Structures are given as structure tokens and as C-alpha cells.
Give the backbone structure.
Amino acid sequence: MLKKWFVNIELAVMAVILVGSSPYASKALDKPQSSPQKMVDEVWKILDKNYVDVSFNHQDWKAIRQQYISRSYSSQKEAYGAIQEMVAKLGDRYTEFFDPQEFKALNNDISGNLSGVGLELAQNEKTKALTVVAPIAGTPAFKAGILPDDLIVQINGQKTQGMKIDDAVKRILGPVGTKVVLTIQRGSQSQTFKLTRANIAIHPVSYNTQTTAAGKIGYIRLPEFTQTAPAEMYRAIQALEKQQVQGYVLDLRSDPGGLLDASLQIASMWLKQGAIVSLVNRDQVKESYNASGHPLTDKPLVILVDKGSASASEILSGALQDDHRATLVGTRTFGKGLVQAVEPLEDGSGLKLTIAKYYTPKGRDINHVGIAPDINVELTEAQQKALVQNQTLGTLADPQYARAVTDLSKLIQSGDNNLSLQRGK
């Protein structure tokens, strides 16, 4: 049985070492461990039964099984290497095998317990360049001024060209208080950042109020869809409702995603009814997820998005845009329309695999395309840097936020929450 479903882009395990116990690994380690061959075969069977591409990247998947289970393995470590080879044949950067330490890190990231430099990373499919999706707010990378789309070209002086993303991650990981030196390529310029690894307490939701000419509005910032995000979002909305705000700005910029269930719960806090997202598996079986019918507020809403808003962020913003519940302001989102599941293995290792594609309520496939905002507001490099360094975030000195406030004020003044009427649709 596949365990957690999530839709995030290369979870923070890609650049942070996580601390705490794994809810899966602790149970798995109590079981007798499989032989290396059995473990390789177990991973093959999970992929054979659940992987989204029935062609397995146009390969003879049964022949691949025979190739790997016929090998002789002297240790679990050799089996891990073989599994990673086998998984790599799928050509899917979102399908990965994690050894016990890495899987422990993955699960702690999902739960929101982090320790490291605070980067969300991906690997460019064409160039294979190690790319920053977003720095996590308040972390060493964030404070140093690393930006989305920066390329990491060296780690501690070692060039990353041709380096696999998991190898890069292992070089970035390390004990709290130790240093890691990252060389970043930003356009034509190269910069070096010496970062000190640190414990990072992720609190997914922060909020405040601001008084505008149209009245009091609530600002909510959601940097990641962790297990605790829905409860924190619920408390934020309830608190802002008690303060009698007249509208909301929800900031999903540089939010790389997270748990599917978190995005569904949060969407239901804003939507009265209707579809949130549809998942289509490899057999073309469609499963739709709908709002619970118990929103916390029906007040006007504007959502901030950018190229760092991915997967779960895109599910939420796509659903609210399709329903005309919210106006999207900012720039086009990342474009990840795939869903992964996590399967723990007996020795504490685990497999993350792509099991479905997802579509917005109107049937939009946003994979590699992203979601275009209703109001496009580009930022200069200087404005991006000020935003990432938290100098202007959620203030009127932030051009995207300022435009969101302007649009929200118009909705509040009009007294009409039906955005489809506001857009002339």
C-alpha cells in the first residue's frame, strides 16, 4: 500500500539535512530485513504495479527485473546502488530511491522539522544544471540572498556539472554549525556564499493585518504544504476573521508544494463547493477531489504566485482561479502537474514514485506549462533580492503585494465577491 501522497518539487531533503525520527523507518526497522535481492525485487514490483508510465520509459521492464535480481549483492549498500540504477532508467527526476538516512530526512521534511541551509532544489531536465527553486524563509540561504533560478555550479569547490542531484545533496548536507560553500551562477555573474548549517523550525503559516483605504485586509504567507499547514491556516483565518478583515492576500510565492492532502484541506477553507483537482493514473482512471462545503470565509481573495510556486501551490491556486474564487497576481508558476507517492521499505529506506497526473477543475494540464496569473507583475532583480531577504515581503514596497492590495481594494469597494462578474466573464 502506498503511503503519503504528495505533489512537491524535490522536497527540502534536496538541500537540507533533517532531524528527528521517521514515522515509517522506526516501524520498518523492527521487521526482519530482506535479502538484497528481495529488496531490489520489492522496488521493481512497486514500480511495476504503480508507476504512471506503463511503457516504463519505453523499456522492457521485465528484462530489467531479471537483470537486477540475477546479480550477486554482498551488502545492502550494493543493493541501494542497483536500485538507484534501476530507478534512473525511468528518466523521471521525481521518482527516487532513498537510503534509510535520506528517507528519514524526507519524512522529517514532510513533518516540517528541518536542519540545514534551507534550499529547495531541482535539476533542469535539459541542461541538468542544479537549480534553486526557492530558499526557505528565514534560513541561512534565504538570509544570504540566494534567489530562485540561481544555478549552483560548485559545492565546496567541487563543480556540479554532470553531478547527480542526490550526490549534490549529500555534499550540501552536514552537521549543524558547520560550513558549506556554494558558488552560484546568476545570469552572467558568479557569486560565492559561505553558509552555516542551522536548525530550521518551519512554521508554514504566518499572518498579519494591514489597514488600507478600502478597509482592513489580512495577509497570509504559506511557504510549504507540510502536515501542520492546514491547522495553522485554519487558525490564521479564524484569527483574521475575529479581527474583522474585509479581504485577504494569500502569498504562495516560492512555495514549492508539499502534501496533496494539505492542499485539499486548505482549498476547502476558501471554496464553497465544487472540484479542487482531478488525478488520472496510468490506467486513465480519474479520481476527483471536491471541496468539503464548509469554507471559513467568503470574503474577497487575491493570491500571489511566481515561478517558485509549484505543485501543491498550483493545485490550490489553479482551483481557486478556475472557480473564480480568487484573482492571481504575480508571474507564471513553475508547472509541475505530477503526483508522487511514498512507499517505505523494510530496512528503513523508501521509494518516491510518480503515480498520476493532475488537472485543474477545468481540465487544465499545467505540467511544464504552469499557471498564468490574472494580473502579471514582473520584478527586477533588485526587487527579487529585497523580497527574498524579507526586506519588503508583504509590504507596499513589494510591487506584487502592492498590486494585490490594489485589486483587493477594488473588490472590497465593489461589494461583489463574484470574480467572474468582475472579470466580465
